[in-house]
Write a structure and sequence with these properties.
Strand order of the largest sheet: 1-7-6-5-4-3-2
Shape: globular
Strand content: 35-45%
Radius of gyration: 15 Å
Number of helices: 2
Number of strands: 7
Helix content: 25-40%
Length: 154
């Protein structure tokens, strides 16, 4: 399977400093992820702001309750502009997620750019076509709704 690229944009009617403060704290990841994904953080990161090289270990249970370890590394940060999380261990052959923030019209334009690849060659390609692509879209759809709930609609 080739690496896939997906992109989502959302205007959030709050200043970039407030949005950055929320997104730069790994403790908020669970708030933006559907309960059915089953995130369980393996370390307490409450009150800790991310930094380049930070490792965030957790379990997820997205399919049939099967628990999988996922280890994320924060690889790049430019304060108030963007950060990148990259899977180091987990269900994907490749996962690179860039979060971009731009102050705009009194609020924040947030753009997510995701590159991912499902493992297992042709079987992974089929799994992506049948299940994974939709699951990724559903997770980011949930995330958009959660952001609107926390920060309001534009």
């Amino acid at each position: 399977m080739q690496i896939k690229r997906k992109e989502w944009q959302q205007f959030i009617p709050k200043p970039v400093e407030e949005i950055w403060d929320f997104f730069s704290r790994p403790e908020n990841l669970k708030k933006l992820t559907p309960a059915k994904v089953g995130i369980t953080m393996l370390v307490d990161l409450t009150g800790k702001e991310m930094y380049p090289g930070m490792l965030i270990p957790y379990y997820i249970s997205p399919l049939l309750g099967i628990r999988m370890k996922w280890l994320t590394e924060i690889t790049h940060i430019e304060h108030l502009r963007y950060f990148v999380d990259q899977q180091r261990e987990g269900p994907y052959a490749f996962w690179h997620h860039q979060h971009n923030f731009v102050a705009q019209n009194g609020g924040t334009l947030m753009t997510d750019i995701l590159h991912y690849k499902v493992p297992y060659g042709p079987i992974g390609t089929l799994a992506d076509w049948i299940l994974v692509n939709k699951m990724v879209d559903d997770i980011f759809g949930f995330r958009k709704a959660a952001i609107e709930q926390y920060f309001g609609k534009s």
